[in-house]
Amino acid sequence: MQRAERESLILDAATERFALQGFTGVALTDIAKAAGVTKPLVYSYFGPKEDLYTACLDRAGDNIVDTISAALVGVPPDIDMALVVIDALFTALEPHPHDWTLLYDTPVPPVAVLADRLHKQRKRIDGLAVNGVHQVAINLGVTDPNDISLATDIWTSTLSALVRWWLAHPSHTAADMVDRSRSLGARIANHR
Predict the structure, then answer these.
(1) Which part of the chain is the HTH tetR-type domain (predicted)?
(2) What share of residues in the chain are helix, strand, coil (percent, to 5)?
(3) Mean pLDDT over residues 163-190, rounded?
(4) Cα(88)–Cα(170) distance, integer angstroms
(5) Which residues of 75-93 are buried (b: 16+ CB within 10 A; e: fewer)?
(6) Do residues 14 and 52 make contact, with C-beta atoms less than 8 angstroms apart?
(7) What spatial distance separates the first Cα and last Cα of the chain, rounded to whole Å?
(8) What is the CATH code for 48-190?
(9) 21-49: per-residue pLDDT in tens?
């Protein structure tokens, strides 16, 4: 197995462990065991647990931001933009299902530099949400900053709920979640 493949296996195992147990609840030995490698190998590739956690945060943030940003190129700022984002989010998460959980649904680590790194990654993703919701809102004639702020919070909460539901129902694929979101969105939009 090539080094890059081993690194990916370690990052996958570490992301899942950190997402499910939090930074303080995980030891490098747990990650090594989950990845099927030795603790010295994990340490030689990533250094101490703090550095491995940082690598997981950075990979998760880059994965989500890069996939959504690429999907939004040329997309008009209308309500259909939401489906593009949902599709991109689940495309990003399908190979790395615990990225969102790591970034949004785990306790902030008690180490200041790690907390700062987590907030940096959240801010990158939240920036996409703020920008996207703002563009759609302006296009729909919504200009009240409080309404736009509320819509942004609703949007990010909706994304978190979709991801949590998906992880709790592993028989559903990422494509299923996009279809389900599209169907529910259409029903809600057409219900009067």
Answers:
(1) 4-64
(2) 75, 0, 25
(3) 91
(4) 18
(5) eebeeebbebbbbbbbbbb
(6) yes
(7) 57
(8) 1.10.357
(9) 999 999 999 999 999 999 999 999 999 99
Tally of CA atoms within 13 A in the half-sphere of 79 that contains its CB: 10
- With 0-12 / 13-18 / 19 or more C-beta atoms within 10 angstroms meaning exposed / middle / buried, residue 154 is exposed
**DSSP assignments along 169-189, one per residue:** -TTS-HHHHHHHHHHHHHHHH
Query: How far is C-alpha 105 from the chain's CA centre?
Result: 10
pLDDT at residue 1 greater than cutoff 90: no
For the four alpha carbons of 167, 170, 175 and 176, in that order, the dihedral sign comes to negative
Per-domain boundaries in the chain: 48-190
User: Residues 6 or more apart from 16 whose CB is under 8 A from it?
Assistant: 34, 98
